[in-house]
Design goal:
The protein has a five-stranded parallel sheet. The chain has a two-stranded antiparallel sheet with strand order 1-2. The longest helix is centred in the N-terminal third of the chain and has 65 residues. About 50% of the residues lie in helices and about 10% in strands. Helix 9 links the parallel strand 6 and strand 7. The N and C termini lie far apart (about 115 Å). By secondary structure, the protein is of the alpha/beta class.
Length: about 375
């Protein structure tokens, strides 16, 4: 058998196995192997049937939910009607009860008290009011004499209690009278009497001399020329008890020498904020600066005050070497303050903008002064509270 004959036989076999079949739903023809069933349905029509079945199931669920909602609304309406009927019945009962209570009150036999009834004061009738003239006693001589004797007795009692001999008609000391007012009254009485006699009560002079006025806690901000124009934001909250001492060109040693003279009369436990060290970083070494800080700390401990050191600000006009030196001093200053019991408040990150400094790169601009003053004012507020 040749190859051509074999190919023809295979074709006949293929034709016998492959047959044209039509879909019973859509009528489309397909070539399938073997003999398909009588009711053949293609895959697309089968998927459409499944989708239709799901849609019918969803429609049934929606209908059931609608029916359930209608039933729930009917139940709620019935309950609302029932509750309104009960409330109206209760109001009617309460009204009847109040009416009956008022009837019983008027008859005087019984009284019905409800939950919300308030006790009211019964006003007396015109027949029950007692009319009395309190000045009737003055009409006769005996009543007038009795009133005069009572007034004289009261004046004698005040005169006996008063520590002042003469001038009691001009001045009477009360418990609420201030010592200064007492002293002014005594001077006036002495001047009017003209005898020069000291009418001051015993112990009044000592009390006036020994009286001390309680002062608020004093706050001092001391430092170099970087503290210029910060007095307003710092002292605005309490101008009488806050002071800013600016020492242009001052170094740590200068502040140490002038500190006791600046704090003369500062009172008990003042708050001292020191901003110094910028001028030292330009001339002295690290060891010398640390030694100056240590000597300043000894002086501060003798004063017995709450001390907070303000960190040294950067100097934009200088190079990286001086900035590294200032950062090293600030790190050491923080550790030393923690060891000695002082406070430390840094400003390095807040003053990284070149616009916060003036043209010379050392002093602050107006914006920088406002920022430094605001930060120090917030620091004082937290420290005092």
């Amino acid at each position: 058998m040749t190859d051509s004959e074999v190919a023809v036989g295979v074709t006949h076999v293929a034709d016998d196995t492959m047959k044209m079949t039509g879909c019973g739903s859509c009528g489309m023809y397909m070539i399938l192997e073997g003999a398909p069933g009588k009711s053949f349905v293609c895959m697309k029509c089968h998927l459409i049937e499944l989708m239709e079945e799901k849609i019918r199931g969803l429609e049934m669920q929606v209908e059931s939910l609608v029916e359930f909602r209608k039933g729930f609304e009917q139940i709620m309406e019935q309950r609302h009607e029932v509750s309104e009927g009960k409330s109206s019945d209760l109001q009617m009962e309460a009204g009847l009860g109040n009416f009956e209570g008022r009837l019983g009150e008027e008859s005087g036999q019984w009284k019905h008290v409800t939950k919300r009834t308030r006790q009211r004061k019964r006003r007396a009738s015109e027949g029950e009011i007692e009319l009395q003239n309190r000045f009737a006693e003055l009409e006769n001589e005996e009543g007038a004499q009795q009133v005069v004797t009572e007034g004289e007795r009261a004046r004698k009692k005040r005169k006996a209690v008063s520590p002042i001999g003469k001038g009691e008609e001009l001045m009477e000391i009360t418990p609420n009278m201030s010592p200064r007012r007492i002293q002014d009254g005594l001077k006036r009485i002495t001047r009017e009497n003209g005898n020069g006699k000291n009418l001051q009560p015993e112990g009044t002079g000592d009390r006036l001399e020994n009286s001390t006025v309680t002062r608020k806690r004093q706050v001092y901000v001391i430092g170099d020329s970087l503290l210029r124009r910060i007095d307003r934001p710092v002292t605005r909250a309490d101008p009488e008890n806050r002071r800013v001492c600016c020492l242009p060109g001052a170094k740590i040693r200068d502040v140490d020498l002038r500190l006791k003279r600046i704090l003369k009369g500062a009172g008990k436990n003042p708050l001292i904020i020191l901003h110094v060290g910028t001028n030292d970083t330009a001339r002295f070494s690290l060891e010398s600066i640390k030694g100056d800080y240590v000597r300043l700390g000894r002086t501060l401990k003798e004063i017995e005050a709450q001390v907070i050191f303000s960190g040294i600000l950067p100097v934009p006009r200088e190079g990286q070497q001086r900035c590294d030196k200032i950062m090293t001093i600030n790190r050491w200053l923080r550790q030393w303050c923690y060891k000695e019991g002082f406070g430390m408040y840094g400003h390095w990150e807040a003053f990284m903008d070149r616009g916060q400094f003036s043209r010379d790169g050392l002093h602050l601009s107006r914006e920088g002064n406002r920022l430094l003053g605001w930060r120090l004012a917030q620091l004082i507020k937290r420290a005092l509270n």
